[in-house]
Amino acid sequence: MLEVKDLHASVGGNTILRGVNLSVPAGEVHAIMGPNGSGKSTLAHVLAGRPGYEVTKGVVRYKGRDLLAMSPEERAREGVFLAFQYPVEISGVSNVYFLKAAANAIRKHRGQPELDAIDFLALVKEKARVVAIDESLIKRPVNEGFSGGEKKRNEIFQMAVLDPALAILDETDSGLDIDALRIVAAGVNQLRSPERAMVLVTHYQRLLDYIVPDVVHVLLDGRIVRSGGKDLALELEKKGYEWLEAPAGSR
Amino acid sequence: MKQDATTSEIIEREYRAGFVTDIESENIPAGLSEDVVRLISTKKNEPQWLLDWRLKAYRHWLTMTEPSWQNVHYPPIDYQSIVYYSAPKQAKKGPKSLAEVDPKLLATYEKLGVPLHERARLAGVAVDAVFDSVSVATTFRAKLEEVGVIFCSFSEAVQNHPELVKKWLGSVVPYTDNFFATLNSAVFSDGSFCYIPKGVRCPMELSTYFRINTANTGQFERTLIVAEEGSYVSYLEGCTAPIRDENQLHAAVVELVALDRAQIKYSTVQNWYPGDKNGKGGIYNFVTKRGKCQGQGSKISWTQVETGSAITWKYPSCILQGDDSIGEFYSVAVTNNHQQADTGTKMIHIGKNTRSTIVSKGISAGHGQNTYRGLVKIGKNAENGRNYSQCDSLLVGDKCGAHTFPYIEVLNSSAQMEHEASTSKIGEDQIFYFQQRGISAEDAVSMIVNGFCKEVFKELPMEFAVEAQKLLGVSLEGSVG
Predict the structure, then answer these.
(1) If we measure between CA atoms, which residue out of B384, B326, B330, B379 comes closest to residue B355?
(2) What three-state secondary structure class fits B252?
(3) ipTM of model
(4) What is the pTM of this model?
(5) Contact B443/A71, CB-based, under 8 Å?
């Protein structure tokens, strides 16, 4: 599904990613962990194609195609979904209208007929149950006046509606209390499927108690320095990241 | 590659009404003098009282100076280089029916999406089409006459209903009012006239479509709408002009009078040529629009969507003279590239229990400068006057500007005033959020902008609202990314 080779990227002239290698097959959930500033969110944004994130070297293949050659909206239409760490508020545009435009842009790209309002509402109601999102939030302007937890839940709700092939969740656990975390995690778990690959970017092991990953990667100074099973996360929890620090001079 | 294709598409789509109709027209020489005023009046076979009124206006205009308080900048206008009268050549007396109208003119309106053939018309809209200085066709006249509604060109009204014109002309906007209105009073060539008799609810929307065609021509039309006691009318106005490098002046006057319990709803979609990307060419739109709620319980509502013109200077206003009368102003003004707009309203509360509502939405993109200027005045006898004002600005990009100048004068302590204002910006992070969900940047802007304008669009008649949304999309294309 996703093949990242020797990816280098910079933001505002600062090199952040220094040769990331990563392979995520369909059906697997990979967690990317690392301390603040290690490049986790940068990786997520580079994969989504955020303007201002400059790829200086490397290759990213998605379903065998060159992901980096695609515009951000093309990536989305091809099934790449980013659950944002800080979802923006968009006043005047209702959540359901926004999602309908998104869903139909994707369907159009796939050559499927666009959904009418009635079919779309049925889909929305079904998916709203996945994350137990309140229907009043669906009608409100996108993220406007939502609490931190509601915003995160809304991201997972959007993911459920848009049904992506590759879902990248950027710090979805941050700012969530334990109950909200459980609900969001349950939602994500329901969306696990043999056709879907997921990348969880997280700072804490806590999320992985609820969403058990197939592989855990440790990102440090813009490189993946260690990969392992779910036990690696527990080890990190105990020891911190220092023991994995790359020796000086190897940067 | 892909990027280029979209860009060229956008350029092509930029101003769709920008074609010129090749038609022989009768122009008088450029320049303004008493003789020109007399000539216009003679050409229109006007009665003496109207010529006298024009001449008073002209003489007064000579004593006036162009206003300079507005927040727009343009090189001085040479009033002697403008042609003050231009008419497509056709049968002397003007066409009696559509069959007599030059087919090229009909084709022009067809191309603009304003078909004048009554058969093909959208059901329920009567159209008066004004081409350069004269009205070329008014549709559905017979049907309107059945209920006593008079809807015709201004020139025809002068000939056929002189008593009405004489009674109401200048009663809301006197010939001394302001520089541009006074100029209009001297040289106005045509426009629309509309009279709704007592107790009649006009059975269809009335519409005027203004078109400037000839080069170096100013368009000075006058619209007069009188709604008698208990009547109702909804009136639509649309405007376009060809793409030309020179600036063209448009100085119109609209007067509305609502008597006891009468209601007038006046909607405008203004799409004059805005000039090119670098600010070359475009219409200077200096317009005076004012309605008088003369009668008790009357109501006048202005709704405008302003996307065109290089410069927009207009303040559709309401004089709330009758007790319990209501004034409303709903506005969307867009400035892109080098467009400048200084627009807003005046709500003058004179009668008791008068209420007014102002909802203004300004959108600036490119190097556009958008100014809201509004006056709410509660007179000393306007017991319990109420006003609610809301002025919102939306910025697209970082080279544009939004300015708000609300003026409030309250002379009666029982007044209640509410004013809300906000400024927001379409940020790159918002655009990226849309893109990440599969929605293009252009669609993202259009969705945000339409959301921003919702409150105003819902005041427009249905077909107009759809038109306005599309127009807004076209006006803002290429403003991001």
Answers:
(1) B326
(2) coil
(3) 0.95
(4) 0.80
(5) no
